[in-house]
Every structure is written in C-alpha cells, then in structure tokens.
C-alpha cells in the first residue's frame, strides 16, 4: 500500500474519531490510530501513524501530553476548543482535504 493511501486512511480515522467523540478531550496514540484506520498493529503502520501525528503536532493542531518516564510512546491531546476539532465538527470533508494539503 502506498504512503498516500495510508496517510488518507489515517486522516479519515482521525476525523471519524473526532466526530464520534463524546467528551471534550480526545487523546490519541499512534497504535490506536493505526488500528482505528484498519492498518492493524504492523510496525510500519504504527510508524506512519506516529509520523502523521508528529506532523500535526508541529503544525500545532495537536498537543503532546506531559511525558511519563515509564512510557516511551507519545500521547497526543486534542481539546474541543482546538481549531482542528472545530473544523472537523463544522465540515468533515473540508477538514480531510485541508489536512491532506497541509501535510504534503
């Protein structure tokens, strides 16, 4: 599977996660995003999900949770006040298109 297809599936999974969120805060790990996208727990899929989350964090769409010394993986936090959350709630298709354009 090509990286572009995997990236699109990961973005769609992120949008679905935000649309189905019942609370005001969503925490995301690369492994859970890869599984939600239907990519399984394959190491390469998890790395691609981690890179996607890291890119979104660099563009300040996500924030990282405070580091825990016991855990080596990053947990990304999205709050209901964040720009990405608001965009997904207003127009999910537009949010997908914009995320794809930003990440390229």
Q: Could you characterize the architecture of this molecule?
A:
There is one protein chain. With 104 residues, the chain is mainly alpha-helical. It has a single domain (3-103), classed as Arc Repressor Mutant, subunit A (Orthogonal Bundle), CATH 1.10.10. 58% of the residues lie in helices and 10% in strands. It contains five helices and three strands. The protein has helices spanning 3-19, 30-36, 43-58, 83-90, 92-103, and strands at residues 25-28, 63-64, 76-79. It has a three-stranded antiparallel β-sheet with strand order 1-3-2. Helix 2 (30-36) packs across helix 3. The two termini are 18 Å apart.
Largest sheet: 3 strands, antiparallel
Strand/helix succession = HEHHEEHH
Any idea how many domains? 1
Content-based structural category:
mainly alpha
CATH class: Mainly Alpha
Task: Report strand order across the widest sheet.
Answer: 1-3-2
| Spatial separation of the terminal alpha carbons | 18 Å
Helix share, percent: 55-70%
Unreliable parts: none
Principal-axes geometry comes out as globular
Query: Averaging pLDDT over every residue, what do you get?
Result: 88
Task: Estimate what percentage of residues fall within beta strands.
Answer: 5-15%
Note the total helix count.
5
Q: What's the CATH topology label?
A: Arc Repressor Mutant, subunit A
**CATH A-level architecture:** Orthogonal Bundle
The count of strands amounts to 3
